Structures are given as structure tokens and as C-alpha cells.
Amino acid sequence: MSAIAKKSLALLASLVFATLGQLSAQESAGIPVHLKPDAESPQIGTLETIALAVSADWPDGQTPVSGWTTVYFRGVFEVYFNNDFFAKDLSPKPGHPYLLDDKADAQQLAISTQNDKTDLLDVGANFSKIELETIVLAYISDTASPTASVPLNAVPNPDQEQHFKGILVAVGNAEKERSGYGFKIVDTANKFLTYVDGENLPESLALKDFVNLPIEASGKVKETSNNTPRALLASGIKKTN
User: What pLDDT score was predicted for residue 179?
Assistant: First the structure.
């Protein structure tokens, strides 16, 4: 082999390894989660993989933005809250904004509710810093997640009753159409555990009444194949602490 050919092969190899390295870095970096359907909007977190995405519908009155997908994103955030809206026990009063900066015109992450999990970190003159654990409506770019596949899991013994602990979430229209199910259970890191079929539940236990709550569900898992996602045929469900 000539010296020129060897040099060309070495250059080609270096380009291939550089490309693979870039792809690996992008994969390990995860999928950016944004506050708005705009790459310039604040990034509020990262998904390790598209399988962890919990699909959501676009908000009423908001026109869907091409190239973006709405998701429910669960996380722990550092936010700011107006000192005027704290209760006597130093908990945030419901109905006021959690802000990304200590300014009145800062971007809003979410609105406070009565059931928020918060921890006061620092008291400021006008705004105090809070650690907030919540689920927010967020956005991921379709270019960051080109293959939104349904997680598949084999079931060793479909006749044995199974128990799942996690958070029940309602899936978006696209995922519902793809999977055939309207609800799924995820863990605290938004990792998919199973879809849920509630057709065998009594009328007093409607799945919609447990959405976004920590739950334990039991029942038999439907048999799966390479083209069908795991689903729990629930016989019982209850809220957990």
C-alpha cells in the first residue's frame, strides 16, 4: 500500500471515530427538556432516553409548534417565590407563580398548589429560594428524539398476579393511539413500568381519579410479543404515601 493510500485511510478512520465520539456524547448527554417549544427557552432538565418521556397534550388555546413534543416532566427544581405569598407556616400559598429568577418578570415554571412538596432554601429581600418537587408541562425537540419507540417488556409468568408501585400518568393522544392504552405507571425518575388497563376495576376505582398520584396497582400482566407493550390488567389500585 502506498504512503498516500495509508494516509487517506488514517484520515478516514480519524473522521469515523470523531463522528462516533460526537454521537456517543450526544446520546450520553440525554434529551434536553425545555420550558417552552423553543431551543432558546430555559432548559429545565434532561431525559436519559425517549422511553422515559411521558406524553402530554398541547395546552388548550396553544397552537402546536412543528418539531416539538409536549411531555410531563417530573423533577426537583430550585425556584423563587414572592415573599408576600407565603403562609404563616412558610409554605407557599396556592395560586402564585414559581419563578426561575428572583425578579417579578422572571419566567414562570409553575403555579403553586396546596399539595406541593417544597423546602425553603434561602430567604431574600423580596423573593425566597425554594426547592420544589413537582410535575411540569414541558417540551422536547423532535430532532432530539427521532425514534419514539414503545418500551417492550417480556413477562415470565403472565398467570401470576403482579404488583406495581409508582405514579399513574395519563398518556397523550399520540402515545394512546400507538400503544392502545390511556394510562401508564412510571417510577419517580419517569421510567416506564407498565401500561394499565382498567376495564376490570370496579366503578368506584376509576383510573382518572389517580392520575399524577403515587399508587400501587395489582393484577395480571397481559402477554406480550415483539410488537405489543407490557400492560397490567388491573384488578385493584390504591393511593400510597
Answer: 79
